[in-house]
Amino acid sequence: xxxxxxxxxxxxxxxxxxxxxxxxxxxxxxxxxxxxxxxxxxxxxxxxxxxxxxxxxxxxxxxxxxxxxxxxxxxxxxxxxxxxxxxxxxxxxxxxxxxxxxxxxxx
Amino acid sequence: xxxxxxxxxxxxxxxxxxxxxxxxxxxxxxxxxxxxxxxxxxxxxxxxxxxxxxxxxxxxxxxxxxxxxxxxxxxxxxxxxxxxxxxxxxxxxxxxxxxxxxxxxxxxxxxxxxxxx
Lengths: 107, 117
Prior knowledge:
The structure holds two protein chains of two kinds. By secondary structure, chain A is mainly β. Chain A has no helices and eleven strands. Chain A has strands spanning 4-7, 10-13, 19-25, 33-38, 45-49, 53-54, 62-67, 70-75, 85-90, 97-98, 102-106. In chain A, the strands form two sheets. In chain A, strands 2, 4, 5, 6, 9, 10 and 11 form a seven-stranded mixed beta sheet that branches. In chain A, strands 1-3-8-7 form a four-stranded antiparallel beta sheet, with no helix packed on it. In chain A, strand 7 and strand 8 (70-75) form a beta hairpin. The interface between A and B is medium-sized, with 21 and 22 residues.
């Protein structure tokens, strides 16, 4: 199975900050990567698919980049509603796998 | 708008079978891929498997214990996981997979299943 390693596992940031989360795959996955946001007690919500395609309705302050094994989720100008846990997921091969998550907390 | 709703017992005894249903509205279970995904309390997400037009694909880590099926007359999915242990305690989600073996764009709210005697 392809392993995804996210870093950091948690971070503290302030409203207005730029936040970057990294996801590293154990082998090349081309552009088959998605990012989700999850708030406590809620289901994950798709933010970005195919590395950099913004899901409909998701604010443009979210962006994704990368290819091969290294990927990045960037949140520009962090908003109060962005404090949550973020997961990457690969769909290059089965089984579909997720990263361990990055919790974004208020500084 | 696709909506999904999981239901089933919140408590299952060790060694017994966990059985959940996912009711789908706003979409046909015949025409899309449907995932089951779980999340142990305070931990990350684990893909269990999916079904498409009666064909299934399972996570090898669970394959010997899991069955995913579909009832097209009710537009419902089912998950059965046998021989459960405390390690199977988790929130279980059903979700629509956008194009089969890809990402999920619509999720149920999830249902917590606790394995305990």
